[in-house]
Amino acid sequence: MLALAGTSLDKVHGSGTFEEFNSKLRAVSNQVTDQIFKYWSQNKHLDVEMKLDAARTDDKPPFNTGWIFRTRIDNRRHRADTSFDDRSSGFVWFFSFLVWFNQLKQTYGKNLIILLDEPGLSLHARAQNDLLRYINEQLRPYYQVIYTTHSPFMINADDLLSARTVEDVVKKEKQKDGEIVEHLLGTKVSTDVLSTDPDTVSPLQRVLDYEITQTLFVGKHTLLVEGPSDLLYLKWFSRQLEKAGKPGLDYRWVICSVRGIDRIPGFVSLFRGNNLHIAAVVDVQAGHKQKIDHVRKSLEDKHLLTLDNYTGQTEADIEDVLGRDFYVALVNKTFELRGKEQVPAAKPADAPERVVKEVQAHFGILSPRHPEFNHEQPAEWLFQGEDDGAKLPGFEDALERMKKLIGDLNALMP
After folding, report:
1. H or E element at residue 182
2. What is the spatial distance between Cα 230 and Cα 250, in angstroms, rounded to a whole number?
3. Which SS3 state, helix, strand or coil, does residue 83 take?
4. What CA–CA distance (Å, rounded) separates 345 from 364?
5. Smallest Cα–Cα separation from 116: which of 85, 143, 84?
């Protein structure tokens, strides 16, 4: 453990003054803390403290004579410390493995093959994920690593082809009396991750189940929008940009509609523990300043994009980013409005700033035979009509504004 901090027992114990001695122990404690808790994410309020004290006569042998080197775990949140042995078996194993392997690495360098049997057995799901991260970042780039597991959390969902199934090969033989006798032929290690044996393939199924449910609505990079129409417009304009030979929305973004700005902070709080990269695109309306500030505080810096920045308006929806010319033409086409029924090409002097509000007011004076305005329908018509929308007036201006929005979203990607 002292080697992990780049020192030795002789160097620490050989300090000539208390200050020098205490300084060296503190340096050791800090270095071990930094290296251990880089990969132990369950509790960020712990510190490792090393102590070298004279033995106490009433302690159990052999700790009642000479000098005793101790490891204590200090909990800053509860302002208490505990003996290393009093920590959970999972923490003790994780800590010990990292220290032990560091010693092996210093002794043998890269001349190692690492074989581990059920390494995550005493760890819960998140701790197993920490161990897998340590293996992928610190071991795999330099060593051949083979480990056995029954746990789905110890399988890398992004690299399933690195998994091997291990199963007994059994030959079934039917006797004359109808009885089935099984003959064990041996054990087979296979690259076939789609094994037919349910027990063998179970961990692989579980990790796939987990990954699928995690990415139905969210992904490693999740873009939150207020409604389905925002999602459809982003998808359609991304496609048009790609057809024009320009970058579309980065494919790694998983767009999730949360149905309202009020739900974004709750969503971020719910999924924060999954270490997701989250951004949001929101409308700007009068009276929403406090809500927008609340959302901004819940996200990383610059990860909230407000649509007023793409329109030159004080209030703006995604439809304002498309521009009034394009959106009015889109509404008239979607609802098949004719003649005087159409939303006028020129904006009335008393019309609201937001084009959606203007269109809603226009539908309010149409005859009862017309349906009520639904702002999701134009987005659906555009998305389903393939390239029909590219023929509408104002398309080029709309594409340019959406290009800016999509470019800003892509710039947030690692």
Report:
1. strand 180-190
2. 16
3. strand
4. 18
5. 143
**DSSP letters spanning 134-166:** HIIIIITTTSEEEEE---GGGS-GGGGGG--EE
- DSSP percent split of the chain into helix, strand, coil, nearest 5: 45, 20, 35
At 360, is the secondary structure helix, strand, or coil? helix
- Structure tokens belonging to residue 161: 């082809």
- DSSP 8-state code for residue 69: E
Whole-angstrom distance, CA of residue 400 vs CA of residue 241: 9
Strand order in the sheet with 221-225: 253-257, 221-225, 277-282, 304-306
For 128, half-sphere exposure in the C-beta direction (CA atoms, 13 angstrom radius) is: 18
For the record, the structure tokens of 223 come out as: 């873009």
What letter does residue 196 receive in the DSSP assignment? S
Can you read off the two tokens belonging to residue 74?
């200090």
DSSP for 203-217, please give it.
HHHHHHHHHHHHHTT
**What phi and psi values does residue 257 have, to the nearest 5 degrees?**
-90, 125
For the chain, state the CA radius of gyration.
31
Element (H, E) at 233: helix 228-243
Structure tokens at 38: 């880089």
Residue-by-residue pLDDT tens, the chain, 414 positions: 777 667 777 887 777 888 888 888 888 888 888 888 888 887 778 888 888 888 999 999 999 999 888 888 998 888 889 988 888 888 888 888 888 888 888 888 888 999 999 988 888 888 888 899 899 988 989 999 999 988 888 888 767 778 888 888 888 888 888 888 888 888 888 876 555 566 666 676 666 665 555 555 667 899 999 999 999 999 999 999 999 999 999 999 999 888 889 888 888 877 766 678 999 999 999 888 999 999 999 898 899 999 999 999 999 999 999 999 999 999 999 999 988 899 999 999 989 999 999 999 999 888 888 888 888 999 999 998 878 899 999 999 999 999 999 999 999 998
Nearest to 232 by CA among 215, 249, 245: 249
CA angle 279, 282, 284 (to 5 degrees): 145
Question: For residues 228 and 376, is the Cβ–Cβ distance under 8 A?
Answer: yes
What SS3 class is residue 103? helix
> Which residue do the tokens 């800053």 mark?
76
